[in-house]
Amino acid sequence: MRRIFNVLILIPLAIVLIALMVANRTSVPLSIDVFNPGNPALTYQAPLFVWLFVAAAIGVVAGGFGAWLAQGKHRKQERTYKREARQLRHEVEKTKRTNGDNSATGTSLVLQR
C-alpha cells in the first residue's frame, strides 16, 4: 500500500514541485509595510517558489488548527463517554464483589446514549 502511495502521489507531486522551483526561481520582493512599500527595512527578497511554499505551509498549519478547534466538542464528548464507562465498570466490579459472583455468564451491561 505504501509503495502505491509513493508511486501514484509522491512522485508526481515531486515532479510538479521541482518544475515549479525551476520555473519560479527569480527573486521577488515581499513588502510587509502596506503604507510605504518602498521601505527597504520591511522588504524581503527571495525566489517566488519560497514565498509559495511559505504560503502553503501557513495554509496547512492554519487548516490543521481550524480542524482541531472544530473537533473540540467531539473530543470533549469522548472524554465524557470514557469517564462514564470507567465509572460503570467500577460499579459492575463492586456489585460482583458484594454479591460474591465471579462469573459474568448470563449478565449484560447495556449502555444507552
UniProtKB/TrEMBL annotation:
Any one Gene Ontology cellular component term annotated for this protein: plasma membrane
Biased composition (Polar residues): 100-113
Keywords assigned: Cell membrane, Membrane, Transmembrane, Transmembrane helix
Comp. bias intervals (Basic and acidic residues): 78-99
Domain Lipopolysaccharide assembly protein A: 44-92
Transmembrane regions listed in the UniProt entry: 49-70
UniProt-recorded name of the protein: LapA family protein
Pfam families: LapA_dom
Family annotation (InterPro entries): LapA_dom (IPR010445)
Segments for region (Disordered): 74-113
Species of the source: Oceaniradius stylonematis
